[in-house]
C-alpha cells in the first residue's frame, strides 16, 4: 500500500541534522514506493536537490537558515527544549498560533497518511488536531523533562533560561484548534510512534526516558548528500600518516579564527587532515599543506577514513563517529553539543571534550574550563591547547578501544533496520512490546 508522509523537521536557525535525518528516512520510504513530501527546506536547498516534493512554503519555519548572526563564535547556552522553542519565539501566543495555522494549511494541501516531525512542535499540534497519525523522531534529550536537561552539569535548582516557558502559549493554541493540552513541552513531541535516535547503552546513567510501547530506540540516523564525491577524494590520501577529520558543523556557529588554531596544531608532516567547511568555506583561513578540504560532504566517508574526529559535538557527528568506532575530541559551541560530548563521548571513554562549562560565582551562570590550561572566561583557545589534545587523543589507546566497544554495542540496533517495515507495522498496529529494550527485528 502506497502512503503519503509529510515530513516537518525543525528548521529554526539550527544545523542540518534534523533535515538530514528526515531525508534518510524519507529516502528509504521513497524506495519502497511511498510518497514523501517536505514542509520545509534548508536555504541551500538540500531537500530539493535530493529530489523530494516540497509543499507550499508557509510561515517563518518553512526555511532553515542556520546562521547565528551576532552570536556566531560565542557559546550559546540552551538549558532545555523549552528554551530552544523560546528562541524561536514560541513563548508568544500569536507566534505559535501563526505557525500552527500554516501547518494546518499544509495538511490540507498534502493530505498525508501520517506526519513525521523532528522537534517541530506546531506541526505536532496541527496533526493531533486533525487526528492524523504522528510519528516523532528525535534526540533523546527531546523527551526528557528534567531541569537543565541540555546542560545536566548545571545544578537542577539553578536556571539559565532567559525566557518564560512556552507551555502557556502552546496550550492556548491547542485550545483553539483542539487536542490535549500539555504539562511540559516534551509532551508535544510524544507521537503515536516515538523514535529515539540512540540506543539504551548510550543512555545508561542518564535520567530515564518515558516508557510505553509507542516509544522505541532506533539507533543513530545520519545523512550523506547523494551527490558527494568525498569517498573518491579521500582514497589513498594520508597513507602511512595519522589521519584527522575536522568538522565544526555547517559553518554558521564557529568562525575562521576559531578554526585556525586547530589547523595549526595539526600542521605536522606525520598527520593528514581532511577539513569539512560546511557551507561557509569562503570564510575559511589559509590551509596548511597537509590539509584537504571540502564543502558539505556528508560525514560517514570522512569519519571512516579518519583515525580521529575533531568535531563540534553535533548529535549526528558524535553518534556516527561512535558507530564507526572512531575516537573524538569535541569543541562545543552550544550546550547541547557539550552534553553530547560529555554523555556520549566521555561516557564511553571514546575521547573527551576540550572545553567544558561549569557553574560560576557572581552574576555569571557558568564559566569555561579548558582541558589543559584551566579556567577561561571566554573559552578561547590557542594552537598549543590543540596540540596537546591531538597528541593525547591519538596517543592514548583507551580512546580507540572505548570507541570500538561503543560500536560493538550499537551494531545490533542498526543492522537489519528498515524504516518502511517499521512504518508498515505502525500502521498495521503490529509494533512489538518492550520497544525500548530490544533492537528492531530484521
TrEMBL record:
Domain named Glycosyl transferase family 28 C-terminal: which ranges?
299-356
InterPro entries referenced in this protein's UniProt entry, alphabetically: Glyco_trans_28_C
Q: Name one Pfam family in it.
A: Glyco_tran_28_C
Query: Where is coiled-coil annotated?
Result: none
> Which superkingdom, per the lineage?
Bacteria
What is the protein named? Glycosyltransferase
Organism, per UniProt?
Answer: Streptacidiphilus cavernicola
Which lineage do the record's taxonomy fields give for this organism?
Answer: Bacteria, Bacillati, Actinomycetota, Actinomycetes, Kitasatosporales
Amino acid at each position: 500500500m502506497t502512503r503519503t508522509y509529510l515530513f516537518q523537521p525543525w528548521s529554526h536557525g539550527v544545523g542540518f541534522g534534523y533535515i538530514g535525518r528526515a531525508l534518510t528516512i524519507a529516502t528509504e520510504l521513497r524506495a519502497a514506493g511511498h510518497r514523501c513530501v517536505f514542509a520545509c527546506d534548508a536555504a541551500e536547498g538540500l531537500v530539493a536537490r535530493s529530489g523530494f516534493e516540497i509543499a507550499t512554503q508557509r510561515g517563518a519555519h518553512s526555511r532553515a537558515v542556520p546562521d547565528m548572526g551576532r552570536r556566531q563564535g560565542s557559546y550559546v547556552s540552551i538549558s532545555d527544549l523549552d528554551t530552544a522553542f523560546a528562541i524561536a519565539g514560541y513563548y508568544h501566543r500569536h507566534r505559535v498560533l501563526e505557525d500552527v495555522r500554516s501547518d494546518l494549511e499544509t495538511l490540507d494541501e498534502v493530505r498525508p497518511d501520517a506526519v513525521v516531525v523532528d522537534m517541530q512542535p506546531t506541526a505536532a499540534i496541527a496533526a493531533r488536531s486533525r487526528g492524523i497519525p504522528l510519528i516523532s523522531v528525535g534526540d533523546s534529550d527531546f523527551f526528557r523533562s528534567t531541569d537543565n536537561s541540555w546542560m545536566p552539569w548545571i545544578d537542577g535548582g539553578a536556571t539559565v533560561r532567559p525566557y518564560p516557558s512556552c507551555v502557556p502559549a502552546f496550550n492556548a493554541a491547542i485550545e483553539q484548534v483542539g487536542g490535549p493540552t500539555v504539562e511540559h513541552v516534551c509532551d508535544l513531541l510524544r507521537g503515536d510512534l516515538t523514535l529515539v535516535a540512540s540506543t539504551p547503552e548510550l543512555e545508561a546513567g542518564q535520567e530515564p526516558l518515558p516508557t510505553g510501547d509507542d516509544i522505541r530506540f532506533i539507533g543513530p540516523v545520519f545523512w550523506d548528500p547523494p551527490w558527494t564525491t568525498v569517498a573518491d577524494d579521500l582514497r589513498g590520501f594520508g597513507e602511512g600518516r595519522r589521519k584527522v577529520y575536522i568538522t565544526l558543523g555547517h559553518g554558521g556557529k564557529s568562525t575562521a579564527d576559531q578554526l585556525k588554531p586547530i589547523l595549526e596544531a595539526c600542521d605536522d608532516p606525520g598527520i593528514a587532515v581532511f577539513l569539512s567547511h560546511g557551507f561557509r568555506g569562503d570564510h575559511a583561513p589559509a590551509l596548511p599543506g597537509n590539509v584537504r578540504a571540502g564543502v558539505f560532504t556528508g560525514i560517514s566517508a570522512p569519519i571512516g577514513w579518519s583515525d580521529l574526529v575533531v568535531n563540534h559535538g553535533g548529535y549526528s557527528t558524535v553518534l556516527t563517529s561512535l558507530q564507526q568506532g572512531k575516537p573524538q575530541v569535541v569543541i562545543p559551541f552550544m550546550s547541547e553539543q557539550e552534553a553530547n560530548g560529555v554523555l556520549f563521548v566521555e561516557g564511553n571513554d571514546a575521547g573527551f571534550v576540550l572545553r567544558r562549562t561549569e557553574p560560576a560565582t557572581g552574576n555569571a551562570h557558568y564559566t569555561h574550563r579548558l582541558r589543559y590550561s584551566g579556567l577561561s572566561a571566554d573559552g578561547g583557545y590557542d594552537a598549543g591547547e590543540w596540540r596537546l589534545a591531538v597528541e593525547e587523543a591519538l596517543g592514548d589507546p583507551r580512546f580507540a578501544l572505548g570507541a570500538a566497544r561503543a560500536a560493538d554495542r550499537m551494531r545490533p540496533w542498526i543492522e537489519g533496520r528498515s524504516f518502511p517495515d517499521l512504518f508498515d507495522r505502525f500502521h498495521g498496529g503490529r509494533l512489538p512490546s518492550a520497544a525500548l529494550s530490544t533492537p528492531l527485528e530484521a
